[in-house]
């Protein structure tokens, strides 16, 4: 290659290389995000487990933390997560909290009861349960304020959602970050929301979030302004099964029932859960504990 051509090639390569580097005194460009979900919501989620013996934790389901009227922390979940098949509370419950250092720690339910934290409050007519949690120094836990609970009139078919939780017990003991799944509201009723999303055992008790498709503002087809930040839509209860029955050709009677996940899930609406945590025995115990000035900053 002639010397002149070689010098021209080297000059072009140098220009291309240098153009991608920051000049002296300039900061590198900011990392562009790829998700519309505010990642702080992941820090509201807690793994609920059993501990029959030290070091032998068994994941049960998911819970999430809410700030009460008096600024206390409430752990919310589905009541079937914390009860055995006879409807009795498990006596070896533990709650896995992430720490800012990157590890996780366990809070024993028995210790909370012994130190005056009360026990679980269960709804008599909904699959919802709550208990008070202490503030743990160094824990990477955020709480959802009550004003981030969506109103009934705001939820409609097609509302985009994300479900956070630990399906099939998939969680790390070092840093229990929840798994997020995307879906939408299929149907909304006064006491039940049906979500078009795949959930599995372990998701029960986890939060269902409204996640706006865009956070730059806009209007819906009806002309109303669209909410531009995440909101709590409800609490995951269970998937809705699809059943297929095999009929015997000889007897014409059912012989085998095959059950599959339909891709639809039952959700206790946020407004129903809010009524439970702000009234009755829960609200009474909240007032009894007094106003908590140390509540961490919520969403």
Describe the structure.
The protein has 299 residues and is an alpha+beta fold. It is 15% helix and 32% strand. It has five helices and 13 strands. The strands form two sheets. It has a seven-stranded antiparallel sheet. It has a six-stranded antiparallel beta barrel with strand order 8-9-10-13-12-11. A hairpin with a 7-residue loop joins strand 1 (45-50) and strand 2 (58-67). The longest helix is centred in the N-terminal third of the chain and has 17 residues, at 3-19. The radius of gyration is 25 Å and the shape is globular. Mean pLDDT is 88; it is low at 6-23.
List keywords for this structure.
299 residues; single chain; alpha+beta; 7-stranded antiparallel sheet; 6-stranded antiparallel β-barrel
Order of helices and strands: HEEEHEEHEEEEEEEEHH
Q: What's the tally of helices?
A: 5
Inertia-based shape: globular
* Main β sheet profile: 7 strands, antiparallel
Helix proportion? 10-25%
Q: Ends: how far apart?
A: 63 Å
What percentage of the residues does DSSP assign to strands (E)?
25-35%
| Helix-strand makeup class | alpha+beta
- For the largest sheet, list the strands in their spatial order: 5-4-1-2-3-7-6
Q: What is the radius of gyration?
A: 25 Å
Average the pLDDT over all residues and give the rounded result: 88
Low-confidence stretches: 6-23
Count every beta strand, where a strand is a DSSP E run of 2 or more residues. 13
């Amino acid at each position: 290659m002639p010397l002149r051509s070689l010098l021209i090639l080297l000059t072009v390569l140098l220009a291309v290389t240098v153009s991608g580097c920051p000049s002296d005194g300039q900061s590198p460009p900011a990392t562009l995000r790829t998700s519309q979900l505010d990642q702080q919501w992941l820090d509201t989620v807690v793994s609920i487990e059993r501990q029959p013996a030290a070091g032998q934790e068994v994941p049960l389901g998911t819970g999430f933390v809410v700030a009460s009227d008096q600024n206390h922390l409430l752990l919310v979940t589905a009541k079937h997560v914390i009860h055995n098949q006879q409807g009795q509370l498990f006596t070896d419950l533990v709650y896995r909290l992430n720490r800012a250092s990157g590890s996780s720690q366990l809070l024993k339910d028995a210790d909370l009861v012994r130190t005056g934290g009360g026990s679980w409050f269960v709804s008599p007519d909904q699959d919802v349960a709550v208990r008070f949690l202490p503030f743990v120094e160094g824990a990477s836990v955020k709480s959802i304020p009550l004003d981030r609970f969506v109103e009934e009139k705001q939820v409609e078919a097609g509302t985009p959602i994300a479900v956070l939780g630990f399906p099939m017990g998939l969680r790390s003991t070092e840093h229990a970050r929840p798994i997020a799944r995307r879906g939408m509201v299929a149907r909304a009723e006064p006491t039940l929301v049906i979500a078009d999303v795949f959930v599995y055992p372990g998701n029960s008790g986890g939060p269902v979030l409204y996640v706006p498709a865009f956070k730059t503002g806009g209007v819906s087809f009806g002309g109303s302004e669209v909410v531009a930040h995440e909101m709590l839509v409800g609490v995951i209860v269970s998937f809705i099964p699809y059943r297929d029955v095999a009929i015997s050709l000889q007897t014409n009677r059912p012989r085998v029932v095959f059950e599959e996940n339909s891709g639809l899930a039952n959700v206790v609406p946020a407004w129903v859960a809010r009524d439970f945590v702000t009234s009755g025995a829960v609200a009474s115990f909240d007032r009894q504990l007094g106003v908590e000035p140390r509540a961490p900053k919520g969403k």
